Amino acid sequence: MILQLIVTGLALGSMYGLVALGYHITWATSRTMNFSQGQTVMAGAVVAYTFFVALGWPFVPAVIATLGCLAAFGAGIERIAVRPFFRAASPAWLLSTIACGIIAENVAMLTFGKDARAFPSALTQRPILMGGAGFYPQELLIPCVGFLLMAAVQGFYHHTAYGKQLKAVAYNPEAAGLMGIHLPRAVMSAYILSALLAGIAGVLLAPVLNVAATMGTIIGLKAFAVAIIGGLTSAPGIIVAGLGYGLVESFVAGYLSTGAREIIGFGLVILVLIVRPWGLLGAKPARRI
Amino acid sequence: MRRAGWIVLGAAVVLLPTVTANTYYLYIVASAGLLTIVTAGLNVLVGFSGQMSLGHAGFYAIGAYTAAICTVKLGWNPWLAFLAAVLCAALVGAGVAGAALRVSGPYLAMVTIAFGIIVEGILVEWIPVTGGPGGIFRIPKPSLVWSYVLIMAVAALALWLTRNLRHSAWGRAFLAVRGSDVAAESLGLSAYYVRIVAFTVSAGFAGAGGALFAFMNGYISPDSFTLQTSILFLLALLFGGEGTVAGPAVGSLVLTLLPELLTSLTDYRLIIYGGLLMCSIYWLPAGVVGACRSRQSDSSDQPPEPNRPELESQPVRPEPATDRLMEVEGLSITFGGVAALSGVSLSLGRGIQAVIGPNGAGKTSLLNVLSGYYVAKAGHIRLDGESVTGRPPYAIARRGVARTFQTPQLFIDLTVLENVAVGVAGSRPGIILAAMLGLPMEVRRDCEILQTSRVLLDRAGLGPWAHARAESLPSGLRRRLEIVRALATAPRLLMLDEPAAGLSPTEIQELDADLSRLRATGPSVLLVEHHMDLVMAISDHITVLDYGRVIASGTPDAVRSDPAVIEAYLGASA
């Protein structure tokens, strides 16, 4: 039982962390976020379903095509909902990205339908039995891919020239601009990367959860909670918070009830913020007079 | 035009039940009324105090369930239940605000979202009390016409209360905190506390709306109180026009009627909502009402030239300055390893004391530590013998220390007169309930505040601008307004951060004259400044900083001939 809860917790938690990294990446480069990140996860699942199941493409091309669509989606969000309000005093980007999410969900409802559908996968056919617990290979695959991707994102930021450029933008956009970094392109890259992470999470989760037009909202919210708990400015904090949140959720659901899961999970968010207002590892913004 | 709009709206609302007995129409308009009540409250939070909530459905739910439980399970009188609902929502609101408002931006959005989800979760799970997913039935329910009348009366009341609030000292405090919390704190207002009050009021309104919702339908369930509901509240407010009194009514009406007119497009409802939200963000950033208003005021004429002023110290609460008003001992502060101040000691008494030094010498850091914005790593600050080391800015301001900023921090949503009125009211904006109800004593007090402000403005020569928005002032006058506003708090010590920066030579002369007059009658002045002529001409005492240390201190003549000072400024020993 405990082993099973841990595996489920790590699987979900790594996905929350992955999606939450998407919030972190855009926040770090532009101090804006895509509040339709949850709907982007949904789009990943729905588009993958369309290519793989509805159109019957082989798996690999279907995934590649899905990622292409999501990159375009991320770029579109940046162009339509964020760039016009970049650095505006009001949080207009918050509302405009919410609006995009609402529209995306409705479009998915109209095209994909209102019902949830199962996503067939070889990895969810037969459970593996281990130590008295049974779980699907997919549940093991998810955290593995999740960890690899999180490590890859960290590597990209720390060890590649382009990643360092994006970090420079995060640190000081004006100076980075003067050093010849094309700011709007950097922000757009961040949005594309963020959408890709969310999309991959959607594809990975599709076989475990069912694919539905409304599946995104709650995942997006939990990922946001994770990003806030970890500290928006801290990638390591977010990864730790993601795993922690996944484990807490899985144990609460296992030992108490699924209903208590949301209450305790989001209650935890408020508690963490009371103790550490800028997240576990986040930096407090300096007060400038 | 504005009055005509209200009359038409009011007449339509009153006449509707006499024209039609169709319950459908009454129900729709009553729903718009409910939405108006909630958004009028949300307006206090978002439009006035500038904070965001994505969890107001939680307060709506608390109102609805409190009313339902009190009447159905406890058998209370519905009026009593209504009051309990408002109080309960406001209390929870105060609690949530205490936790939520320590953070801002996305963190605040998260806390409010989390609150909404937790409330929704509790409604579903706590079955013995809330009835679980099935909700609560058989809530005593007046006839629809009575519900309609009641809801419309409360909606009108809600709009009237927010209107009174906007024009009270509290309303100005909200908008001041929204415009610049830094400046608001320098006048004695705690931004945190002011925002908590705004949050509490808006939660109370949401509770009222929720209770009426329960009474109108006779049945409630958790489905009505989701995150989507919270987003709808915000959307209605922004679409109508946040910060305007009529905005909530217009936004609520449109957002309630529109889906009804487009019933054939139910499947596209979310697209319509999302599209509407996008359109309003793109083309109506100030909402429908805001757009109408700005078109009207475009034609207003420019204010006339100012008559030449004299900036006297003002008569509100003259406090005699003592010889040792502020004493500073061994003050040190570092930023990321760089020592901005190390071991600075000085003593402020009567008259004008200047702090000069090359760029980066730590002058502004010193001022920020003295006024509480930075916390010193070491050292003590005593004000009239009382230690104020490490106290927050508003607490220091309340002890009679006022200041201005290097870039003037005006409250841009307020008029010039109101900017000064925030200073006059200082940390005492009065009793908020009395202000909302427009009680005579509160109205009288507010009149006095505004009159005092007017006198101060006239004396400073800003009278002609009294009703212009502070934003529209040219930069020289912005500095002047900021000084008037600081003086309006009747300080014992006034700290000026480079008041001459960016002024023209004539304006500097005027400033010189003003400062001389202050020396004669007003509070002690601490002047951080670059213009040597000005400093040498009017200062009684000069402290010179270099690399965060005091390198010289004395009368202007003594400082002028000090070799250390000459070296610091000219870079070589003369």
Notes on the protein architecture:
The complex is a heterodimer of chains A (289) and B (574). Chain A has 289 residues and is mainly α. Chain A has eleven helices and two strands. In chain A, a hairpin with a 2-residue loop joins β1 and β2. Chain A is globular and about 60 Å long. Chain B has 574 residues and is α/β, with parallel strands linked by helices. In chain B, 58% of the residues lie in helices and 10% in strands. Chain B has 24 helices and ten strands. Chain B has helices spanning 2-19, 23-48, 56-73, 78-100, 105-125, 127-130, 144-166, 169-179, 181-186, 191-217, 227-240, 247-261, 269-283, 287-297, 363-370, 393-398, 416-425, 432-437, 440-459, 475-487, 505-521, 532-538, 556-560, 563-570; strands spanning 326-335, 338-348, 352-356, 378-383, 386-387, 401-403, 493-497, 524-528, 541-546, 549-554. A six-stranded mixed β-sheet of chain B has the order 6-7-8-3-9-10, sandwiched between helices. Chain B is elongated and about 90 Å long. The N and C termini of chain B lie far apart (72 Å). The model of chain B is unreliable at 298-310 and 312-318 (pLDDT under 50). Classes of the chains: A mainly alpha (289), B alpha/beta (574). The A-B interface holds A 27, 33, 80-81, 84-85, 90-92, 94-96, 98-103, 105-107, 109-110, 217, 221, 224-225, 228, 232, 257, 259-260, 262-263, 266-267, 269-270, 273-274, 277-279, 287, 289 and B 52, 99-100, 102-103, 105-107, 109-111, 113-115, 117-118, 121-122, 124-125, 182, 227, 231, 234-235, 238, 267-271, 273-275, 277-278, 281-282, 285, 364, 368, 373, 405-406.
Strand adjacency order, main sheet of chain A = 1-2
Biggest interface: chains and residue counts? A-B, 45 and 44 residues
Rg from alpha-carbon coordinates of chain B: 28 Å
Shape of chain B: elongated
Total helix count of chain B?
Answer: 24
Mean pLDDT of chain B: 86
Helix content of chain B: 55-70%
What would you report as the Rg of chain A, rounded to the nearest angstrom? Answer: 19 Å
Class from helix and strand fractions of chain B: alpha/beta
Give the CA-based shape of chain A: globular
**Estimated share of beta-strand residues of chain B:** 5-15%
| Sheet with most strands: strand arrangement of chain B | 6-7-8-3-9-10
Question: How far apart are the first and last residues' alpha carbons of chain A, in Å?
Answer: 55 Å
Q: What ranges of chain A have pLDDT less than 50 throughout 5 or more consecutive residues?
A: none
Spatial gap, N to C terminus of chain B? 72 Å
The largest sheet of chain B is: 6 strands, mixed
The oligomeric status of these chains comes to heterodimer
Average pLDDT taken over every residue of chain A: 87
